[in-house]
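User: Please run a holo structure prediction.
Assistant: Happy to. Please share the sequence and the ligand.
User: Here you go; the ligand is magnesium ion.
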Amino acid sequence: MNSEKQRQIGKESPVLEVEHPQRIDRVHPVLEAEHLRKYFPVRQANPFSGRKIIHAVEDMSLSLYAGRAIALVGESGSGKTTVARMLARVYGPTAGTIHFRNQPVSLRNSTAALRKYYRHVQLIFQDPFSSLNMVHNVRYHLARPLHIHRHVHNKEQERAQVLALLEKVSLTPAEQFIEKFPYQLSGGQRQRVAIARALAARPQVLLADEPVSMLDVSIRLDILNLLLRLKNEENLALLFITHDIASARYFAEETLVMYAGQAVEGGPCEEVIQRPRHPYTRLLISAAPNPQRHLEASRIQAPQTERGRGEIPSLINPPTGCRFHPRCPHAMPICRQRVPGRTRLDNGHWTHCFLYGESTTPDWGHGGEAPETSPPSDKPQRE
Ligand SMILES: Nc1ncnc2c1ncn2[C@@H]1O[C@H](COP(=O)(O)OP(=O)(O)OP(=O)(O)O)[C@@H](O)[C@H]1O
Ligand code: SF4
Ligand SMILES: [Mg+2]
């Protein structure tokens, strides 16, 4: 099957007929990914040098709920964008499944079905400068998705809805923005247009890939507040990708920490940030820009050993066992040999680390469910 076909969504997939739900549902996920894996082949100049593969994402699972946000946190190169692109069906996963409203999103071919899936699951890019087309004005950018998804049928409806979208993202008075071109807007205004364009499709899921990282520090909070308001008003299931674990706490209900393509810790934001368990999460918190905010976290369990050592490893030949072991101040012999499975802690908090149990994931590469261990004591135990 060619890669274009692999990106397509199944023709019969009933998922795509689901309309926007009226009720908030905290039990059933809107979008659910299980054991996603993504490998990229490396292009090589020498065809005889052997096939190399980038192991960008390994065994990634997450569930997005209406009206709630998950913050996906990790260093550059940890695989955050690749996860978002698989969820948005920009990339087909190498392995794993995606369910939308409990229906499988299949790889079978249907352009019409793919368009409907795109309507429900919208991606906001990091760079508002390149995500808008400089030769088209704001009206064009917002009217296009309205027409593609058949939300408008004439010029009058188009104008009314474009104005309403501008109001929704607080670009007011809307009449003053509708004919402007991207080069006439500030970075923050462009990102508001990009958000309005995503909303034009009337999505249920918003995947925001570092939506403020390229903006001036002074306007980042405004854009975060806008996304927060829209999440509540539109009942959106939101994936918020960020380098900054501090903004995760402000923005999301849940935090998921990724390292070198793998999820290492997750749970409610307060739990993960106030009581980080995985040495990598503690490293991220100790490097957060506002140490005052995380004083308690560092007092609890982030000793001097959580200082950064080294960099994210090569994903062509990732480290054996726990991928964090070359950087980990607590690494033990077992960490080099075996992949830690998931250990459940208190209050929905979990981690993958031998400090909290001996569980392993022997078939990690095949997407097997990690066995679980009972919650450990707060104090890390060495072998
Ligand atoms: N299209 C691609 N082809 C080949 N390799 C890719 C591709 N996209 C991503 N990668 C590789 O996959 C790994 C994860 O990249 P990804 O962009 O998902 O990380 P990220 O966490 O989003 O990083 P950043 O914070 O810098 O945006 C990197 O090693 C990257 O080089
Ligand atoms: S499993 Fe071992 S190497 Fe990995 S984070 Fe835990 S202690 Fe460190
Ligand atoms: Mg990225």
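The chain has 13 helices and twelve strands.
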